[in-house]
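S.,

Sequence below, as promised.
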Amino acid sequence: MDERSSKSEGKEIDEITLRPIELTDVDDFMEWATDEKVSQFCTWDTYTCKDEALDYINNNAILHPWLRVICTKNRAIGAISVTPNSGYLDSCRAELGYVLAYKYWGKGIVTKAVKIVVSNIFEEWPDLERIEAFVDVDNKGSQRVLEKAGFLKEGVLRKFRTIKGRSRDMFIFSILSADTF
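The prediction came back faster than expected:
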């Protein structure tokens, strides 16, 4: 995907762009990845050192089929990914995930990023019919992001995902290629 952008109504953020992650993003990555407020609902543990972050970026994030950093003024302030499901029966589905540095929460940035992704990913992956997102029932902010981006809350998956050693209930949200305009 080429670089995409969206204008923001907020004074702090005039524009966001999405681009592939690079090793040079490590310092920006550390800003959100070391923050326990940011990682509290994530399946990964809070990062504690730059070497771990470099290893993750180099061996996972760069190789991911579709992971982009969310940028303002070309500074990475978060990330968003679409992970295709594997196997013939599940190839029509993919999972959406995102993370944003705490100081940018509540500004509509992730909602804009999700809308950019949805408006393009169904064209990039023509066999994709459904994007799913799994959100901890206590993560109200992420639930609002998806609702504002046009996702439908389908229900609760009980004890669905282990986060920080605890089985958690998750809401499942989705958007279909037929839902987009």
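The chain is about 25% helix and 35% strand.

Coffee later?
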